[in-house]
């Protein structure tokens, strides 16, 4: 039995303005009397669930109410004799919870489980009896809610209990839908509890359940829970906000006139639409007042335009931006790019001749249902053909929930899980990035390449050595934006591991837990931040000569320039330098123009018939163990001799290698460069 169940009238009398407009409220006293009268006749629906039946039929006209009748009779008989702290029969609580869900459009199975959600925990009814009477699906949901109900939301609550709640939600999101409606009814009836207990329950509601309602898209529950929590935890600010709203209600609302102007514009354009004024709830008004200062009439609400089809939304937008002055910075298209919690709408703001700026939301009626009820409005997510394989919209396993369930298994202790859970739920936006193979990754806003690596590869991301974002190389610490394409580069060496500073850039709990675990297991793998830079590593070899270049100058010593390392069949030019030697450059080398400007004597140069030649190549790479050995092995496999090699100190995890190579034939050069680029970690190879 819920510990929060108290006097249902006290709270309503203290704060009646928190009631949502147009929402039916159960008369618990009347329901209590109806429940005490016992069940109705066999063929007649009990009066006590008349409100539920009416709300359910509004969304599902063809619904079979007989199962609801049987569920109510079982719940009423099993709870008979149990009373709430208000003195009302306990059956009024599951009835109120079920009505909340019915108004949101929940399907019959959810409502049946809602009526029975406390029977297994608080009465002698067993789960096997529920399964035999109502089937496996209802029993599964009731069992999940029962596990959640056992959670102690007290000050000493263990994080493990929240882990159980999330696992139950991952198995079926309808479990959390019932829990949210249960918490909303208990918050509505919290008035006679001790202030410290009210504050404790409100804080847990704020920290865990409201973010979950947001992520499941159940805005109707989330906004009312926010207002109830606001009234308990911030009573002074709540009273100021209440006074602001009360003063506004006593004045003429300019939004009504603006809404009429919008109706006229759309009617003249031949667009069928319903135009409503949608008042802001208390917390929204409070936030607006903190950012805008003194509020004007349109700040207390928004214009809501409901149409039939997606195309009509854009038609409405075009008319609004044509007939009014749009505020371009306020435009957001959540239809083309839905939010991670299924929300879709067009948001804009327009300036009207009276000097006001009004915010406008445009959506279809189906979008409106989903915006209000989230996953509850999707019906039975397990019915044939209604699921989706898309991670971002699958109601059975939203992307954020999949991430959360994955990393919670790796959390080494309850404190780490609790910290990660708070951080995950604090993220109220999500981005989608595209993988190089065409797949997608759903990440919280602010995530970077490190987070993408662990989201895609798990622990294999320990070997990530770099990333390309939208085709350009970038550091692993770089944040990602919605719509970016990310290609992650992994080392083939299984011993590779993350750097200690990755923890500073990782945003997701999954990445942070994996990195921390690896660093704890490999303390020797962490490089001290103050380590001195390494000196260049040089592998000496023969000094460069003229190769197979011949100058038209008798007895002259010919050498190939190190700045451009010409090879056959490059067009070349020679110049006499100090000591009478001839230096050979490619004709497009910048040094050629400099030689001519200095008045150096030009000498004709040609290539011998022999095929061997010498060339210098520069390899740009991400630093990792054994990279020099792998590059040298790739060069050797091409039958090329390494004359000398130099490795510069790493800069931001990037390393530059310089190789002077003796080629058996100039024709092997393209294949050699390709082989070097194929070495993991190497992202560019070019001639010096």
What does this structure look like?
- This protein is α+β, with helices and mostly antiparallel strands.
- The protein is built from 26 helices and 22 strands.
- Strands 1, 2, 3, 4, 5 and 6 form a 6-stranded mixed β-sheet that branches. A 5-stranded mixed β-sheet has the order 8-7-11-9-10, covered by helices on one side.
- A hairpin with a 5-residue loop joins strand 15 and strand 16 (582-586).
- The protein is elongated and about 115 Å long.
- Residues 1-29, 31-42, 384-397 and 526-544 have low confidence and may be disordered.
Please, what is the oligomeric state? single chain
Round the Cα radius of gyration to an integer and report it: 35 Å
**Mean pLDDT value:** 78
Low-confidence parts, pLDDT < 50 over ≥5 residues? 1-29, 31-42, 384-397, 526-544
Number of strands: 22
What's the layout of helices and strands?
Blueprint lengths: L7 H7 L13 H9 L13 H10 L6 H14 L12 H13 L3 H8 L3 H4 L4 H8 L1 H14 L9 H13 L1 H16 L6 H21 L3 H15 L1 H15 L4 H15 L5 E6 L2 H11 L8 E7 L2 H14 L1 E2 L5 E2 L12 E6 L5 E8 H9 L25 H10 L5 H13 L3 E6 L4 E5 L4 H9 L6 E6 L2 E3 L10 E6 L11 H4 L3 H13 L15 E3 L9 E3 L6 E3 L11 E5 L5 E5 L3 H8 L4 E2 L1 E3 L5 E10 L4 H11 L3 E7 L6 E10 L5 H9 L4 E6 L1
Parallel strand pairs: 2-6, 7-11, 14-16
Antiparallel strand pairs: 1-2, 3-5, 4-5, 5-6, 7-8, 9-10, 9-11, 12-20, 13-18, 15-16, 15-17, 19-21, 19-22, 20-21
Helix pairs in contact: 3-5, 4-6, 5-6, 5-11, 6-9, 8-9, 9-10, 9-11, 10-11, 10-19, 10-20, 11-12, 11-13, 12-13, 13-14, 14-16
